[in-house]
Amino acid sequence: MAVARAKKPVSRKIAGDAGGSGSRNAVRGFMLRFAVLSLVFALVPLIPGWDGLESRYLSVQAVLVNGLLHLLGQPTQLEGTTVFSPAFRMTIAPNCSALGIILFFSATVLAYPARAKRKIVGIMAGFMAIYALNIVRIVTIYFTGARWPERLHGVHEELWPSLLIMGTLFISGVWVYYASNQRTT
Description:
By secondary structure, the chain is mostly helical.
């Protein structure tokens, strides 16, 4: 014969930790910090001297893309931020830099409750990962333009923006997982 056991009442502390007002307040705090940081980072291009920094950043990207294309056997040349060959010509413009999405990622990291050292590591690692993904994006856009120009618009304007966003969300998720595990140990 089975004996029925009475369920123990859940304490308020456990209930609060499992989705009560404490976790809602933490989420609200994160969202508020994220919104404020996103707004601040959206204003970064208005900082005096930003255009010069961005120009140098784009030049470095162009040099890396040109070098990578050479390694892949492409006879490209470089003129400022324009990479070209007889097959295709492209200019790496500010909206191709991925700086906006890197700042979005940085706002996520800074808003998340973690130690400052972990945030610095997260921003540096995320910057490198997103930067590398963007270099791959630019190289594939070159190859698309050189070999399949009819597909260039779809790859440049539709496919890669989505992949860059998904990649950034994935990198953000990995960082949150890492930071959360470090907080509990």
